[in-house]
Amino acid sequence: MKPATTNPRRHRLEVRVTPEQDALIRQAADLEDTTVSAFVLEIVTARANRVIRQQRDTVISNEAFDRFIAELDKPAKPVKALVDLFKTHPKLPEA
């Protein structure tokens, strides 16, 4: 027998559902010709990826991006607190 090439699934998630939710999920899985586990796993994984992507990526309009770049291109202005800090501590301690 040839060994499996994919990692075995070792973790288990359990969720309690109402009878109505159970029937709905089973009907949808059946319509997709898949198991309830495969259906739920696919949907939940896609949603988790979308949530993580939304938190990681910032999407802005072209106009907002142009304004952002214009602000970055402006010459820097000294920040008094930082100027004072570097006057009193000209060299930061080595890590």
Number of strands: 0
Number of helices: 4
Compute the separation of the termini in Å.
55 Å
The dominant shape is elongated
Give me the strand/helix succession: HHHH
Low-confidence stretches: none
Summing up helix and strand content along with how strands pair, one would put the structural category as mainly alpha
Helical proportion, percent range: 55-70%
Largest sheet: none
Query: What count of domains describes the coordinates?
Result: 1
Mean pLDDT: 90
Query: If you compute it from the alpha carbons, what radius of gyration comes out, rounded to the nearest whole angstrom?
Result: 27 Å
DSSP strand (E) fraction? under 5%
Write down the oligomeric state.
single chain
Structural description of this entry:
There is one protein chain. With 95 residues, this protein is an all-alpha fold. The protein has one domain. It has helices at residues 19-31, 36-56, 62-73, 80-88. The radius of gyration is 27 Å and the shape is elongated. 0% of the residues are buried.
Task: Sum this structure up briefly.
The chain is mainly alpha-helical. The protein contains four helices and no strands. The longest helix has 21 residues, at 36-56.
Write the layout of secondary structure elements.
Layout: H1 19-31, H2 36-56, H3 62-73, H4 80-88
Helix pairs in contact: 1-2
List keywords for this structure.
95 residues, mainly alpha, 4 helices, elongated
